[in-house]
Design a protein that fits this description.
This protein is of the alpha/beta class. It has three domains: about 20-145, Orthogonal Bundle (Fumarate Reductase Iron-sulfur Protein, Chain B, domain 2); about 155-250 and about 405-475, FAD/NAD(P)-binding domain (3-Layer(bba) Sandwich); about 255-405, FAD/NAD(P)-binding domain, CATH 3.50.50.60. Helix content is about 35%, strand content about 15%. It has 19 helices and 15 strands. It has helices spanning about 20, 35-40, 50-55, 60-70, 75-90, 95-100, 115, 120-135, 140-145, 165-175, 190-195, 205-215, 235-240, 270-275, 305-315, 335-345, 410-415, 445-450, 455-475, and strands at about 155-160, 180-185, 220, 240-245, 250, 265, 295-300, 320, 345-350, 350-360, 365-380, 385-395, 400, 405, 440. The strands form four sheets. The chain has a five-stranded parallel beta sheet with strand order 3-2-1-4-15, with helices on both faces. A five-stranded parallel beta sheet has the order 6-13-7-8-9. It has a three-stranded antiparallel beta sheet with strand order 10-11-12, with no helix packed on it. Helix 16 links the parallel strand 8 and strand 9 (about 345-350). The protein is globular, with a radius of gyration of 23 Å. The protein binds flavin-adenine dinucleotide and iron/sulfur cluster (2 copies). The site of one iron/sulfur cluster has 15 residues, from helix 6 and helix 8.
């Protein structure tokens, strides 16, 4: 007997038309409604074992949540509640991961449907469940099930940094019954989610809701507190039973080439922070201005480069992304590259910048590049090695954004002398994510270097469990 018919194509999600979105910061992808989400869920083969689970860094029961969604198609509220309960077992920020995970390299890469046609749109289904639950009050109801009634009685924990690692660690500990205080250097919580990733990819109201959820769990957030300056790690250890460091990798790598100090050359961090955190795109409604010319060159090819390029485009500039390697080695999410191309961002490959050229007023007016050539040999990350050709090209640009990578911030490790670091500045941790100082744990980009939101969240969750065990063991009579 023939089995059910395979539906090879994904159910599409609507997007804001290009002409409209390039003029604003509104979210580009509009996601599924209930009917289309169930239709997409029905494509899933319910594999057992399910390779998609192994592809997800936090091992969400993907067939489980998809089944819950389609099993109760008559009752959207029930379907979403059951699906969200399954997702929350492993991931408390699905509205965010559904939007920003590189699904094509993670859960969707090994999806069996991908061999016959298009993989199941797992990220968009996850996002749908979270969005629907938020809009219909389901999330609030479910939160009670996941929360301990012993709020604040198990001990006190300080969390440094409010990016996805810190937020997850704080949430998990609060749910277990700890009193948690987050110390954040900036004036808004969220880490890269608030200062790096633009509104058109991750609307800030979603992050605001996640922060509100944490506060409902009793987590206190102290903003404008730089640990290592405003308060030391030692002082935190005197007051709290344990500390989690989730300070990320927010220090931009720079290009050490002539002309780097010219005006209108930005690091991606400065550029994106001004636009996202300080809302420079709404100047003069907001105080922060930003100076962008008519022709912008973005150097780099990761998510940061894509976000900077698409933001500059929305500010009215023509934008070219220049990358020293080829298209296949770009590290940005495929959806972001597709959106950037649709919106008119141009790409130039195998160009390595060697000099910034300025005008008589000290402003950048062009970038000189050496043309590169790929070799057959690959480097440790599997990328094709490249060599200079000795040929040069100059491209006009009155704005340059450098997006070539980020390193961990060293404020805490330089102040707290007992905290061991690796040569690249990441913190040394053991298998339980404890640093070289007993009771101090760490996770996210602070231990991995530039990585992903879901890996940072996975670390936050793992560290919360280890912190609980550490504190409870300390409490046992000797
Ligand atoms: P962060 O998010 O960096 O948060 C660290 C927080 O600690 C910050 O708020 C910082 O202000 C605070 N802090 C630092 N030092 C101190 C101190 N001494 N005292 C107090 N607070 C301190 N990943 C994806 O998976 N998908 C994407 O699409 C994606 N896009 C990205 C786009 C951009 C522009 C960037 C920069 C990164 C992107 N990433 C993406 C990577 C991802 O955002 C990071 O891997 C993730 O945010 C790391 O989380 P974290 O909690 O470790 O650190
Ligand atoms: Fe996929 Fe990320 Fe969700 Fe895991 S958390 S299932 S990798 S979208
Ligand atoms: Fe469904 Fe794909 Fe996972 Fe199989 S691998 S259970 S088809 S999502």
């Amino acid at each position: 007997m023939a089995g059910p018919k395979l539906i090879k194509e994904r159910v599409p999600t609507p997007e804001v038309p290009v002409e409209e979105r390039v003029k604003s910061f509104v979210e580009v992808n509009l996601g599924y409604d209930f009917v289309s989400a169930v239709k997409e869920a029905e494509r899933c083969l319910q594999c057992n074992p399910a390779p998609c689970i192994q592809g997800c860094p936090v091992h969400i029961n993907i067939p489980g949540f998809i089944k819950a969604l389609r099993e109760n198609a008559e009752s959207p509220e029930e379907a979403v509640k059951n699906a969200l309960r399954i997702i929350w077992d492993d991931n408390t920020l699905p509205a965010i991961t559904g939007r920003v995970c590189p699904q094509e390299e993670q859960c969707e890469a090994p999806c069996v449907m991908g061999k016959a046609g298009e993989p199941i749109n797992i990220g968009k289904l996850e996002r749908f469940v979270a969005d629907y639950a938020r809009k219909h009050g389901i999330e609030k109801e479910l939160l009670k099930e996941f929360t301990s009634t012993e709020n604040g009685v198990k001990g006190k924990v300080a969390v440094v940094g409010s990016g996805p690692a810190g937020l997850t660690c704080a949430g998990e500990l609060a749910k277990m019954g700890y009193k948690v205080t987050i110390f954040e250097a900036l004036h808004k919580p969220g880490g890269v989610l608030v200062y790096g990733i633009p509104e058109f990819r991750l609307p800030k109201e979603i992050l605001d809701r996640e922060i509100a959820k944490l506060k409902e769990l009793g987590v206190e957030i102290k903003l404008d507190h730089i640990v290592g300056k405003t308060v030391t790690l030692e002082e935190l250890l005197e007051e709290y039973d344990a500390v989690f460091i989730g300070t990320g990798a927010g220090t931009p790598k720079l290009l050490n080439i002539p002309g780097i100090l010219l005006d209108r050359i930005y690091t991606s961090n400065e550029f994106l922070t001004r636009i996202n955190l300080m809302k420079a795109y709404k100047f003069p409604e907001y105080d922060e201005p930003i100076s962008i010319g008519k022709k912008t060159i973005v150097i780099g090819a990761g998510n940061t480069a894509m976000d900077a390029a698409r933001s500059a485009l929305r500010m009215g500039s023509e934008v070219t992304i220049a990358y020293r390697r080829g298209r296949e080695d770009m590290t940005a999410r495929i959806e972001e590259i597709k959106h950037a191309e649709e919106e008119g961002v141009k790409f130039e490959f195998f160009l390595n910048p060697v000099e910034f050229i300025g005008d008589e007023n000290g402003k950048v007016k062009a970038v000189k590049f050496e043309k590169m050539r790929p070799l057959e040999e690959r480097d440790a990350k599997g990328k094709r090695k490249i060599v200079g050709t000795g040929e040069y090209i100059t491209l006009e640009a009155d704005t340059v954004i450098i997006a070539i990578g980020l390193e961990p911030n060293k404020i805490i490790s330089e102040e707290a002398t007992g905290l061991k670091t690796n040569p690249d500045g990441t913190l040394v941790v053991d298998e339980n994510l404890m640093t070289s100082i007993p009771g101090v744990f760490a996770g996210g980009d602070a231990i991995r270097g530039e990585a992903t939101v879901i890996l940072a969240m996975g670390d936050g969750k793992k560290a919360a469990k280890a912190i609980d065990e550490y504190i409870q063991k300390k409490r046992l009579p000797a």
